[in-house]
Each structure stands twice: as C-alpha cells, then as structure tokens.
Here is the input.
Amino acid sequence: MFKSRRYKTYDLEEKWLKEMNHVMSIEMVAKTKLLIVPCSGEKTAVLAQDITKILREDYGLEDKVELFTSLRRSQVEKGTSKNHQHELVSDYFPDVEAQVDIGRNQLYDNIRGTHVALIEHMLTPHRFLVEGQPQCISVNDHLMTIRGYLDILKNVDTLQRTLVTPYLSYVRSHSIDKYKKQGFFQFDSLNMVMEDLQRGKLNALITVDPHAKEAAQLAESLGMDFHSINPFHSARAINPYKLGLSKDKAEDVRKHLRPFQERFATLREEEKGDLYVIVVDSGTESRCENFIERACPDLSPEQFYALLVNFEKSRNTYDNTNTNIKSFSPINTSNMNPEGTYIIIDDMAVSLGTANGAAKVVKEATEGKGRVELWTSHAVTMPVQHEKANDRRYIDRVVCLDTVPQHINLNYEYINASAHLLASGLYKAHQKLVANR
Here is the structure.
C-alpha cells in the first residue's frame, strides 16, 4: 500500500515536472525576441522596416519581433553626456571612420537576451557622407560599421547575432586556388572577412545569392550558420510549412520569393514559348539548367535542354575576355530564332562585359531581331561604369533585384524582392534558434 502510493507520488511528480518543463519551454519560445537593428540609415533603414513588417504580418511573429533604430550624429542633442543613458548612435566621423555608441541602459534593456539581426547594405554606390559632397561610403566603411556593432554587443549577452545583408561583398577572391596553380597570387579577402566576422562573435549570416559558394563553406568551417537565398528557384523549393505560412498567405508570399520564375512565366505566356536561356560560362551552367527545368515542367529533358545557348568564357587578362558558343550547344549561330527572346541569367551585373559579349553573338546571328535580356541578382555597377553598363546596342533590358541601392541614372529595371527574400531567411534562422532552446 505504501509502495503503491509512493509510486503514485513519483508518477505525479514526474508528470508535474514534464508539464512545468513544457510550460517553461513555451515561455522560453515566447520570450525569444527577434531584434531588427539597421546598421545605417537611408534605404537600409527602410529595408529593416520592411523586413520587420513582413515578419509581423506574413509570418505571424507580431510582438516577437521589434525594430530598434539608431540616431545619426546630427540628431544627438548638444551637451548630451556620454554615460549609461546615451541612445544608440550609428554614423561616420568626418573622415569616414565608423562610429557606433550606446549607453548601458539601452544595451541592457533593449538588446540583452534577444536574437539580434543586424541589417546592412554592404554596397551603396551612391551613398555619400554628406549629400552634395564627393565623399562616398565604401564597402570598407560598411564592413567597419558591422564590426562596430559586433564590438558593442560583446558587452552584453545575446541569444544569437545574425548579419542580414542583401549583397555580400568581398566575394571575388573565390578563384584563388585556380590562379595559384598558374603562379598568380591574389589577396584572399573572402577568407579575411569571414574570419574577422567570426572573431567578432557573429553566429549567422543571411544573404541573397552570394557570388562565391565558397563563402558558405568557409563560414560553416568557422562555426557560423550561412543562409544563402536563391532568387531563381521555383515554388517547389519553397516549403510553406517551414515558413509557418497559413493557406491565405502562402501563395502570395511564395510569389515574392520566386521573382524570376514569376517573370519568366509571364513572358512565356506573352511570347508564346519563344524563350531561350543563355549560359554565359561554366559557372552559371547549373543555375541556368535548374532554372529552365523548373520554369518549364511541361517539357521533357530533351526539350528544355534544347532551349539553352551554351557559351564559354576565358579571361586571359584583366580587360580581355573571350566569349564563344560551345560545340555541344543545341543552339548556335546557324539556328537561332530571330523571333525569340534570349535571357542571360547571372548573379551580378557590373559593367556587362561578359553579357554584352554573348548578346552581341545573338544580335549578329539574328540580324538584330532577337531580343536579349539580362536577369541578375545584384547590380554592383559603380558610377564610373554607368556609361558602359547603359549601352543597349546588344542587351535590350537589364533586370536586377533591389539588393544594391543604385542611382536613377543607371538604366536597369528593379524587382523589389530583397525584403521578402531576407525576411524568409531570417524567419527560418530564428525558428532554428527557437527550436534549439
């Protein structure tokens, strides 16, 4: 009798402990606040606002996500003491040294115990220190601002520190090993940046379509989570359950997460199927093949591969790139459809040298009748390259995502997708953190 009651007591205690652990787990999840912090102003502040709104309304985070903004130097009242009551300030000194300051009160009351998501554009070709003055904010300045934030965060405990950037800079050094075999050595900037962010205690990085796949491998080898978002994927690659989307939200959100597939579907309907995809080099081959396969699910492999124009590119010097059609390409100069639209798919648009090389071949083969469009994730064109990039003799239209804030003089068309793409990546990263707590 005594034993029976004793076992019952133990059973009740065990049940009570399980219930309490469940309640504590629910409370812990509820308290896992996501803090959105724009590292700079202007379009970066707008991007942070848009991401916050999308997470609240589309992903149902509501009060679990909060926007925490900073002041500029000019907004700080004169005579403000540098003490525990000081507000967050993020700006640049007149010589463009990064400035990030915060008082202990805000650091403890607003930041401590949260999942901090630092939002920053790492390339802003037309952002100036002072409007009307020539001093431009460079990629190095943005990188130092990020490091400034990571440095002040070392003074407080946070659940996770995540960098959210539409375009990841310092990704051009991904071919170091290839050139080293040729006796040519390059500054390994990608490795340096990743190691520096890791030293700054960054836990995760979210970006759109990074130029170097090595960035993910390097980040993960350093113990950081790396979330790469592919804007060229289709609905089949977007799992609504992972994104916590309700039925009434799922389809609308998915359209924002597949911007180029949506555009292709619209064009395919308008052009009655006369669409072709140009593979400018071996580096874009898989991207183009996957895109056309998912864009044309009604076609057999033989049929959708027949829509590809395969080029090869060889870069011999800094300014000399040769572009030729590969021998196995199903489409070549002898059978190009003059009524077709030829779409070049790539991750970056700079001065359009490679794209123009392929477009010129198409224009000459179709006697100027074939239409050529360049679809790319990032417009990384600088002001000095505008004239060359705006040349429309061979490329009829350039379509980019809004990952890099650009000047209106640049003759590109933009798809406003950055906030939606980054919000989806940040939501998944945050849910992973919540699940592991």
Q: What stands out?
A: The mean pLDDT is 90.
